[in-house]
Amino acid sequence: MATIEKNMSIIDVVQKYPQTAEVFRNFGMGCLGCIAARFENIEQGASAHGIVVEELIADLNKAVE
Predict the structure, then answer these.
(1) pLDDT, tens digit, 9 for 90 and up, residues 1-17
(2) Model pTM?
(3) Residue 31 CA, distance from chain mean position
(4) Which residues lie below 8 Å from residue 32, measured CB to CB, with a gap of 6+?
(5) Three-state SS for 9?
(6) What is d(CA 31, CA 33) in angstroms, rounded to the nearest whole number?
(7) What are the tens digits of pLDDT across the range 13-52?
(8) Which contiguous run of DSSP H or E holds residue 27?
């Protein structure tokens, strides 16, 4: 069962699971401090960066296992 889902807030995920920051950076989402990260969910952020959200979610969940 997934811990992190695509509809979750980016900033909430990073605050709850700090180890996910590196995963976001590896996917080219290094703007975790930007204002959009506070309002966008993971799916919106991935879409804005041209990232396949399912791959990102899989790696995020591996990081928190």
Answers:
(1) 569 999 999 989 999 99
(2) 0.89
(3) 11
(4) 10, 11, 14, 21, 24, 25
(5) strand
(6) 5
(7) 999 999 999 999 999 887 666 777 778 899 999 998 899 9
(8) none
CB atoms inside a 10 Å sphere around CB 50 = 8
Output the six-digit token pair for 36.
């959009």
Q: Position 11: which residue type?
A: I
Residue in the structure block whose two tokens are 């952020």: 45
| 3-state class (DSSP) for residue 54 | helix
Radius of gyration for the alpha carbons in the chain, expressed in angstroms and rounded: 10
Q: Encoding tokens for residue 57?
A: 């979610």
User: What length is written for the chain?
Assistant: 65
- The pLDDT value recorded for residue 39 is 81
Place of tokens 């928190």: 64
Positive or negative, the CA dihedral 33, 60, 6, 44 is positive
